[in-house]
User: What shape does this take?
Amino acid sequence: MSTWANLGLQDSASPLMEQLIFFHDHALLILVMITVLVGYLMFILFFNSYVNRFLLHGQLIEMIWTILPAIILLFIALPSLRLLYLLDEINEPSVTLKSIGHQWYWSYEYSDFNNIEFDSYMIPTNELATDGFRLLDVDNRVVLPMNSQIRILVTAADVIHSWTVPALGVKVDGTPGRLNQTNFFINRPGLFYGQCSEICGANHSFMPIVIESVPVNYFIKWISSNNS
Ligand code: CUA
Assistant: This one.
């Protein structure tokens, strides 16, 4: 979860989010180097003494400053494509969770396990526990096993919503009449918070997501206590 003055990305809870953070830092470093170089050159321009005012062309330097940026762009494009295809790779999921966006709450279905289904509403501020997180906690959490491949299917019942959990690197639109798929692997236990990130109506800000990541045997206990 993000806390005060956290301007960067949240700590990752999945290998893919870790890769996304590495790529973000890599791209930002290149961006900073370009900005500093261009800023320096523009500043230096103020002190130009016009000694080369009869110089009209320079084949070599033009060749260099055309090809060099193209190579720099490749260093961003290739890792970006690698990540893009890696994010889409499905690797034998052991659990499939279906999540349906509604105005304004999420509902979940564990179709693999006796069709467990429930709604997940935000807890209103006046009903919040003293240690609860305002606008972020829900009445029914999504319980998922850690160290397992999890597939998520996202759709919506009314308008477009978006199932977004930053620590897991997941952001999938829920669109009425469609079923979107992605997958993730949670590599530590804990609570991971997310929010709808598609402007879906008046209470768009009030349909958070809470994932409770637990060891596999705890998950089995939870799932079997639910389908009595
Ligand atoms: Cu649902 Cu915004």
User: Anything to note?
Assistant: Residues 101, 104, 161, 196, 198-200, 204, 207 surround dinuclear copper ion (CB under 6 Å). The first helix runs from residue 15 to 45. The two ends are 33 Å apart (CA to CA).
